Amino acid sequence: MNSRPFFSWIAAAVTAALCGLAPVAATAAPPASEEYRLASGDKLRIEVYRDAQMSQSVQIRPDGKITLPLLGDLDATGRTPIELRDTITTQLKEYMTNPVVTVIVVEASSAIAYVMGEVNHPGPVTLQGGQLTVLQALAIAGGLKDFANAKNIRILRRSATGVMPIAFNYKSAIGGSSPVYLRPGDTVVVPD
Fold it and tell me: How many domains is the chain partitioned into structurally?
C-alpha cells in the first residue's frame, strides 16, 4: 500500500495550519452537487398552466432581470429555477387564483472562470460541465511562466459578503493533494 498521498495531504494540512490559512473544504468537492443558479444570458421558458398569454420565453438580461406581463421586471440571477418559480407564483396570486408556474432552463449560459498573471495565455476558461480544477485551468492557460510564484496562487471567489481569497499551492497540487474545483466567476491570480 502506498501511503505517500496520505502523507502529502497531511503535510499540506499542517502547512496550511501553520501559515494561518483556513482549509477550503467547499472547493474540495465538485460544485456539481449544488443546485443550478441562474445567470445572465440563460434562456428560460416560463410556463403558466392554462394561460398562454402569461407563458413566455425569456433571456436573463445583463442586469440579471427578466420581464413578464403584469409583473414587470423580476430579479433572476443567482436564484435557482425553483426560487424564481416561487417568486413568480407568489406575485401572480394578485391576478389569478392558484397559479401553477414552471420555470424551465432551455439553455444555460457558459460558465466561465478567469486565469491571469504569470501564465502563458491569460484569459477566460470555460468550466466544462462545471467541474474544472485549478490545475486544469492553469493547463488551459498554457501553464506557468518561468518566474511565477507557484506556491502563492490565489483564487478570488465572489460571495454574499464580498470577494474571498483562497490560497492555492501549485507544488502541493501536482504532488497529489485533493483537487480544488473552480466555480463560475472565479479568478485565478498567479503572482510573480
Answer: 2
pLDDT digits (tens, 9 = 90+) for 133-192: 999 999 999 999 999 999 999 999 887 678 889 999 998 888 888 888 888 788 999 998
Q: Please check whether residues 97 and 74 belong to one and the same domain.
A: yes
CA distances from residue 136 to 17, 121, 131, 143 in whole angstroms, order as listed? 26, 13, 10, 9
**Using only C-alpha atoms, what is the Rg of the chain?**
21
Same domain, 92 and 143: no
CATH number at 94 reads 3.30.1950.10
Does 118 share its domain with 95? no
- The torsion angles phi and psi of 134, rounded to 5 degrees, stand at -60, -40
- At 101-131, the pLDDT tens digits run 999 999 887 678 899 999 999 999 987 666 7
Residue 154: CATH number of its domain: 3.10.560.10
Helix (H/G/I), strand (E/B), else coil: 70: coil
Q: Which three cell numbers stand for residue 123?
A: 484569459
The whole-angstrom separation of Cα 124 and Cα 116 is 9
User: 61: closest CA among 43, 83, 48, 34?
Assistant: 43
CB burial of 78-96 (b: ≥16 within 10 Å; e: otherwise) equals ebebeebbebbbebbeeee
The whole domain housing 59 covers 43-107
